[in-house]
Amino acid sequence: MAYLFVGEGREYLLEPGETLESDLGILEVPEGVAAGETVETHLGTEFVARELRGPDLFHHFERTGAPMMPRDIGLVMGHTGVKQGDHVLDAGTGTGVLAASLGRAGAEVLSYEQDPEFAEVARENMELGSVADAVEVRAGDVTEEIDELTGSAFDLVTLDTADAPTVVARAPELLAPGGFLAVYSPFVEATSEVVETAREAGLEEVESLETIQREMDVGDRGTRPSTAGVGHTGYLTFARNPV
Length: 243
Hints:
- By secondary structure, this protein is an alpha/beta fold.
- The chain folds into 2 domains: 3-50, Vcp-like ATPase, Chain A, domain 2, CATH 3.10.330.20; 55-240, Vaccinia Virus protein VP39 (Rossmann fold, 3-Layer(aba) Sandwich).
- The protein is 27% helix and 35% strand.
- It has 8 helices and 15 strands.
- It has helices at 54-60, 70-80, 97-104, 116-128, 146-149, 164-168, 171-174, 188-200, and strands at residues 3-7, 10-14, 19-22, 25-28, 38-40, 46-50, 87-91, 108-113, 135-139, 154-159, 175-185, 204-212, 216-219, 222-225, 232-240.
- The strands form 4 sheets. A 7-stranded mixed β-sheet has the order 9-8-7-10-11-15-12, sandwiched between helices. Strands 2-1-6-5 form a 4-stranded antiparallel β-sheet, with no helix packed on it. It has a two-stranded antiparallel sheet with strand order 3-4.
- It is globular.
- The model has no long low-confidence stretch (mean pLDDT 94).
């Protein structure tokens, strides 16, 4: 199990028995290290071992593309109420931050990634996130396996793929009564297609949100939104299967 070693404003992801060399000294991680313990470099710099938490996955998973932002993941979890024991179908695994977050919430996740190399990286990330038992990453196109997946009564279907409308059209066959659909789209045109398809499929409570987050600059003169940018990431569309 890997830990974050935090000290001097830095953090390093290391496993028991691993050695790190830096300008702060040589850090040798003991085999039996546990969270909360302090380990010193040969120069006396202290680092505290810390378990990976959900937000840490975004920063420390190996990336195969742009991962979903924590705020977007929060919206997915908040709007769908995903909980322990839920069954989730996820497509467009990518780095796997969303799938891992759902697994850490107690859900059982089946995630599809078209690129076999990306899928292998995602599996390794699931091991790092301690959710390998909860998240199965399959290399393949979910649209080619929909017929086999229909009737599975998923509590939640999450999509981050260019062909999301194809899956949305079959969502009533995939979802349990009252189950949720959540689709991430980087472009407004794709969002419109997803919304129209969800309505045509007979899904209810269809809503689409743009996700924007502004950082606040706090200083001696006052507080105001940062001028660094508006913090747009994409669009999230939610819908629900009729009961």
